């Protein structure tokens, strides 16, 4: 007997369905995309038992004729493309012709639809991929799809579904993404008969306030840039409004929500070192590129894409993010007691959020924070003392400032090191420092040699497992051997996605290792020198790892803490 057989059609259909329909949230995603492609203005989503029991998606879109409704359940039948050339200019969210047949292969499906041209609508009932009934019914224009008993005929898939709570959370996440992507549409989500959210048509910021919360909306900065054929617009959060994961990052390419590490990384790169390590911003960003410059056909569920010119895209995104951040006062303030629910409700009812206006950008956006004067610089300060041998206390015209001496000195050293690298200035050792290292360490030195030399090291082979160091970075004050061993150990623990990350990590380590530590007493002269040097920094507000260097307690904050004002 032949060991290779042709699989039966029903098995093939279920395997293909598994590529598109992973869980109830996948069904919701595909049906919402169909509604959006149908130019629906209102989309209503209802579900029960985390979507495992039933899902209903109803829209007021263009609907379908009886003939089209029947064809829609045939695999690879689509209204979105006509030829191979159309694959290079996809402008719709769906186009493969797989969503409805995939869902119908693993669930009991009923669809009621009517186009504007038809007097009556069409009702189709399908079970396990087979059409059971087609009939005429009275129906409003648009389409309603009911999906019951997902995976009823594939128990192996059904048992791997998560709890009702977990599946519910996934559905809410999907609907949230599309509510953020299309603020002009009315999206209603109902769970077990209870309204989860009701997002009416609104502008971007009001929509963000409703979907993500008013506090996040208040932290948002407008992003807008067009360069070459790439356009980006939307909102990003200030550096002090972050999460410990990427769940707050919502990025859409030509209206399609995507999960793309390259895009996430491009946004984060735009913050430079304003973010603390392992902290991620909130963002709602729309990226628009010509359809022939992006391939959306690389995944059956269409959640990943490929760009023709990634470098151009990265440049535009990072510039757009930086331009939004650069005019802002990036100094953190202490937390003010949270508003009451009544106060938040009043603000939402007021509809227009009292957001700070973004200063107009000049024709050429400054590349450095220090090019902004006045309120965008550290103000002149008078030293008052030191707390716990860790924080410098200073007075300025508006209140009191607390300066983290280690973070501030680290920032000073970091920028001094970057300048020395630009100017190729290094310390020449009077006598070479000969180091005897392990074979592993020697290999790692040579592995990172190019980046180490950019920072200011110069190595020379000096026999087996031995190297001679002739030059070191200008800010390095520690023992060379001890520093290199610690650095290699640190690099060993990291996972680098891009080569440039290695150099950045080395620079940060050199800056950090020799910086003034916490619990170190300082003379007034030394404290004054730190503040003077910090004021000259391009970004005096954070250390290279994103921690704040200074916190301002202005008069308003102090009076609120003492209950002098409300």
Quick summary of this structure?
The protein is built from 18 helices and 24 strands. The protein has 566 residues and is an alpha+beta fold.
SSE topology:
Elements: H1 9-20, H2 24-37, E1 42-48, E2 54-59, H3 66-71, H4 99-105, E3 108-114, E4 121-127, E5 130-137, E6 142-148, H5 155-158, H6 164-181, E7 186-191, E8 194-199, H7 204-212, H8 214-219, E9 220-227, E10 230-237, E11 242-243, E12 249-253, E13 256-257, H9 261-270, E14 280-281, E15 283-288, E16 294-295, E17 306-307, H10 310-325, H11 341-349, E18 382-387, E19 391-396, E20 399-404, H12 405-423, E21 427-436, H13 439-447, H14 449-455, E22 458-461, E23 466-472, H15 480-493, H16 499-513, H17 524-535, E24 550-554, H18 555-561
Parallel strand pairs: 1-7, 12-15
Antiparallel strand pairs: 1-2, 2-6, 3-4, 3-6, 4-5, 7-8, 9-10, 10-15, 11-14, 12-13, 16-17, 18-19, 19-20, 20-24, 21-23, 22-23
Helix pairs in contact: 1-4, 2-6, 9-10, 12-16, 12-17, 14-16
